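Thread: "does anyone have the structure for this chain?"

Original post by V.I.:
We have the sequence but no experimental structure in hand. Need at least a predicted one for the grant figures.
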Amino acid sequence: MDFNRIVSELDAEIARLQHIRSALTAGAGTSTATSSVASTALAKKSGRGRPKGSKNAPKPGAAKVAQVAAPKPVAAKAAKSAGKRKLSPEGRKRIAEAMKRRWAERRKETAKK
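Reply from O.Q.:
Generated one for you, tokens below.
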């Protein structure tokens, strides 16, 4: 493509978009001052994640809703009370031996090279 043709197409597109923007702002009855205020408000927005100082405090009335809620099924209650799963010493030993075998194989491969 010709460089001058690309530049002229971009200029035409910019002019078309500016014309559309002016028509929209005139039709909506808004001024450019309000759009600049909105753009600065968006620029001041903080980064991603939870805002500083926010807490996991319950909302007012949440305690009442929790009391009124239907009781949970027994199966879900039993699963929750089981707690964290623990690894037996035998299982830990099997995993350690398997990892040592794996590392030995890796050492052999690197020694061959």
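V.I.: this helps a lot. The two ends are 51 Å apart (CA to CA).
O.Q.: and The chain has a mean pLDDT of 78.
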